[in-house]
Amino acid sequence: MNVKEITQSLEQLAPLAYAEDFDNVGLLVGDDQQEVSGVLVSLDCLEVTVAEAIEKNCNLIVAFHPIIFGGLKSLTGKSYVERVVIKAIQNDIAIYAIHTALDNCFKGVNDMICEQLNLTNRQVLIPQINTIKKLTTYVPRKDADKVLEALFKAGAGNIGNYEHCSFALEGKGSFLPNEEANPVVGKKGELQIEEEKQLHVTFGKHVQHQVLAALKASHPYEEVAYELTSLENTNQHIGIGMIGELESGMEEKTFLKHIKEVFKTGAVRHSHVLGKEIKKVAVLGGSGAFAISAAKAAGADVFITADLKYHDFFKAENKILLADIGHYESEQYTKNLLHSYLTKKFPNFAIVLSQKNTNPIQYS
Asked: Are 64 and 43 in contact (CB under 8 A)?
């Protein structure tokens, strides 16, 4: 098994097309054709992580956070980032990062937070825009079923819990082949009127390449006419943050004590308690100050996130309880998610969960 086979499986869970533009995801170090001896799954990729991979005979590290974020202008070992990359290269260890692709995945980072709190009725807090594409194409009537089947196989036509979704109209298409053409039907220099079907299918943007390749491979015409548009429809399965409900409401201070215990954090920094019951809970793993307004708009009683600054707490405006549980603490279960996923995909392969605590923040 090579690196690419492992990473392609991960991208079925969290397609890289949904990672944020600022992010650096995918294979960061190594050759995707390298044979894999074992996979080490970690939250971060530090020097101790590479040492652990060497010790456990793993030559692929699957990390949540990317070790290379900004550009590297040299590799001299003057920073921890450079030392990690050098050590990985010296030991033929590949490094793959999934980060915000998994943040934006429905069964990703934020779903794991919801899982720890047993939240029900989970929904994406901030759906990502322009994730749904629509393909319109024109096919000879007799070939329509064959083309549709190829599009479905490539991943088109999936809407929520439904597959093979499409719409078709019948009509007449016209074309006049010139002398350079090689028409399947009709003759050069003669106007051809053909009974055709207009087909419509939608699909997630991450399968666009496969869908267009399937269209061109299955379509009988030399020149394939099609239109591709981005839809503004809300995609409730792709986006960052999540909101759900507790099975039973809790008093605020009891809830704060509860999340401190669940996430094993040294302290929970929070805004003023409001004297109301906590029932609706919004969460966003990692730095989530940008989502405070979305949590309020969604009617959340509390917003659990990390890395809130002094002025961010004022944004509660006595409408919501803001709870900062710590960056590491909010994402700590992510490596368990990745380990469980890969173990199920490759049950007879060495998938190792890192035992290193990479939290750089300590509490006294």
From this structure: yes
CA distances, 113 to each of 104, 209, 253, 307, 344 (Å)? 13, 33, 19, 16, 21
Dihedral, CA of residue 78, residue 82, residue 84 and residue 90, to nearest 10: -100
Residue 270 is part of which domain span?
Answer: 109-128+238-330
The secondary structure of residue 187, as a DSSP letter, is -
Residue 362 lies in a domain: no
pLDDT of residue 161: 85
* Dist CA 11 CA 206 (whole Å): 10
Tell me the pLDDT tens digit for each residue of 157-205: 998 889 999 999 999 999 999 999 999 899 999 999 999 999 999 999 9
Read off φ and ψ for residue 203, nearest 5 degrees.
Answer: -165, 160
Contacts of 171 (CB under 8 A, 6+ apart): 196, 197, 198
Instruction: Tell me which of 209, 231, 253 is where a domain ends.
Output: 231
Same structural domain, 119 and 152: no
pLDDT tens per residue across span 239-298: 999 999 999 999 999 999 999 999 999 999 999 999 999 999 999 999 999 999 999 999
- CA distance linking residue 95 with residue 18, whole number of Å: 20
Q: In this predicted structure, what is the pLDDT of residue 155?
A: 96
Q: Which of 231, 253, 280 is the last residue of a domain?
A: 231
Confidence (pTM): 0.91
